[in-house]
């Protein structure tokens, strides 16, 4: 059934999903207010999400199904605001990733585990795209960056569960820090590549682009540190503000969340770019903003967590958890509304071979990273020579679920008109979006099933890990 929408009116013609563009009316019309569309997204989306959680399935897939059904009766105001709604959800992804990273946990071995295996997979996908899909290196790198990032929104809750079951075991804690760090790596790398892939970069020499992006990253990290650190210090001390002996601010957790979210929105706006290419703070010698918006928000969250009190950070994270439910409902329902059934036959022909190449490279990267850490004996690492294969397998299963980053970035090459100087730009843009949706639908489901099934078994096999306290070991055995 094709639903033809115009001016808050809905008509039913015949059955198939709504296309990407607005279409006109025919047949019998009825008023369709935006409130009904939102009620469906929030209520039905949340109920289906809850059913999937109870069934041990990824909630994002349930919400995608709700969005797919919504494509048959999409409300016109929501349709026109679909890109903006996804961008706001993407902002929440960035802020969440930043808040989950603790500077005290960022040891050298953690960067190796978060960056090296992801880079292996990214390069494998890019090579596959260049050799077999005839894409340029820039197109392949953008494709790999979007597909490679771990689904931290799926993995972190599961690691919390494993951490409760196996108290004191280092592997869940490793993945708990690894997940947001890798997500931040992918988001920041995507922002850098956007400077080369966006149409505004045409006509600029490569050396100038590289220098400009290096400067942009340095300035962004510094500005994010100042914004986030100042916010953390001030927000933690807001209760001391008084007038005539009366406390001005309540000190409630939602108050701190509203403050840091507003500051993060300012950080994002400093690097944002309008549809006409206009920016708030431009660079002088290359196009684009002085600040990289994704990295700016992440750094703001990271340094807020570093400067605020631990109790304050946990309170903000709890509020963020509630708000992120709305973000999930919007983000994944919008993805589902852009999905059609004809994308799935493409999976076996093009996406599955690319996925297999990427995952083989990912496992090799994890195995080599762990062995390299052991050889160099980097301080603080939890690995042992006798358990390299088991540790590698657990880490590999933990990075299989994919959802959040793919959902946030998959549409960006289309909306940003990436690769416009290349002859097959629209084909590459559409394939990236298609691959991102297929990764979400397959990797989130298969990845979570494998992690739920084999994760506890692999942890149990490493209960006798050296360097792990006997008391914690006995607790984990009794809990299991």
Topology of this structure?
Blueprint: E1 3-6, E2 9-12, E3 30-31, H1 34-54, H2 59-70, H3 76-80, H4 82-100, H5 108-132, H6 137-148, H7 152-165, H8 170-197, H9 206-236, E4 242-243, E5 246-247, H10 253-271, H11 293-307, H12 310-337, H13 344-376, H14 388-398, H15 404-409, H16 412-415, H17 425-461, H18 470-479
Antiparallel strand pairs: 1-2, 2-3, 4-5
Quick structural overview:
The protein is mostly helical and 480 residues long. Helix content is 69%, strand content 3%. α5 (108-132) packs across α6.
Explained architecture:
By secondary structure, the chain is an all-alpha fold. It contains 18 helices and five strands. It has helices spanning 34-54, 59-70, 76-80, 82-100, 108-132, 137-148, 152-165, 170-197, 206-236, 253-271, 293-307, 310-337, 344-376, 388-398, 404-409, 412-415, 425-461, 470-479; strands at 3-6, 9-12, 30-31, 242-243, 246-247. Strands 1-2-3 form a three-stranded antiparallel beta sheet, with no helix packed on it. Strands 4-5 form a two-stranded antiparallel ribbon. Helix 4 crosses helix 8 (170-197) and helix 10 (253-271) packs antiparallel against helix 11 (293-307). It is globular.
């Amino acid at each position: 059934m094709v639903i033809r929408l115009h001016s808050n009116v809905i008509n039913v013609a015949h059955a198939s999903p709504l296309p990407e563009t607005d279409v006109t009316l025919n047949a019998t019309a009825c008023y369709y207010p935006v409130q009904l569309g939102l009620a469906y997204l929030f209520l039905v989306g949340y109920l289906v999400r809850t059913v999937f959680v109870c069934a041990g399935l990824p909630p994002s897939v349930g919400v995608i199904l709700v969005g797919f059904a919504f494509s048959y009766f999409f409300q016109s105001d929501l349709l026109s605001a679909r890109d903006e709604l996804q961008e706001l959800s993407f902002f929440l992804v960035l802020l969440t990733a930043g808040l989950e990273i603790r500077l005290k946990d960022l040891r050298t071995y953690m960067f190796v585990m978060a960056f090296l295996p992801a880079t292996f997979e990214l390069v494998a996908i890019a090579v596959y795209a260049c050799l077999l899909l005839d894409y340029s290196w820039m197109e392949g790198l953008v494709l790999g960056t979007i597909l490679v990032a771990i689904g931290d929104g799926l993995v972190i809750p599961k690691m919390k569960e494993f951490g409760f079951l196996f108290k004191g075991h280092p592997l869940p804690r490793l993945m708990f820090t690894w997940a947001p760090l890798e997500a931040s790596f992918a988001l920041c790398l995507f922002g850098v590549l956007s400077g080369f892939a966006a149409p505004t970069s045409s006509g600029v020499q490569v050396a100038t682009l590289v220098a400009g992006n290096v400067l942009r990253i340095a300035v962004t990290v510094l500005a994010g540190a100042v914004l986030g650190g100042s916010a953390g210090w001030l927000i933690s001390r807001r209760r001391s503000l008084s007038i005539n002996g009366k406390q001005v601010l309540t000190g409630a957790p939602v108050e701190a969340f509203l403050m840091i979210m507003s500051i993060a929105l300012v950080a994002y706006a400093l690097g944002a770019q309008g549809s006409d290419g206009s920016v708030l703070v431009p660079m002088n010698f290359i196009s684009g903003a002085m600040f990289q918006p994704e990295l700016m928000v992440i750094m703001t969250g990271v340094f807020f967590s570093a400067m605020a009190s631990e109790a304050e950070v946990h309170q903000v994270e709890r509020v963020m958890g509630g708000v992120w439910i709305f973000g999930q409902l919007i983000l994944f329902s919008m993805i589902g509304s852009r999905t059609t059934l004809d994308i799935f036959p493409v999976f076996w022909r093009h996406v599955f071979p690319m996925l297999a190449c990427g995952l083989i490279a990912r496992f090799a990267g994890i195995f080599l990273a762990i062995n390299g850490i052991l050889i160099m004996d980097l301080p603080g690492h939890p690995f042992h020579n006798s358990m390299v294969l088991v540790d590698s397998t657990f880490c590999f299963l933990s990075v299989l679920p994919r959802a959040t980053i793919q959902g946030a970035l998959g549409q960006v090459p289309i909306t940003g008109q990436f690769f416009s100087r290349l002859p097959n730009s629209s084909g590459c843009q559409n394939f990236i979006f298609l691959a991102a949706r297929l990764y979400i639908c397959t990797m989130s489901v298969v990845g979570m099933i494998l992690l739920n099934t084999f994760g506890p078994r692999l942890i149990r096999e490493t209960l006798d890990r050296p360097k792990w306290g006997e008391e914690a070991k006995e607790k984990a055995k009794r809990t299991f």
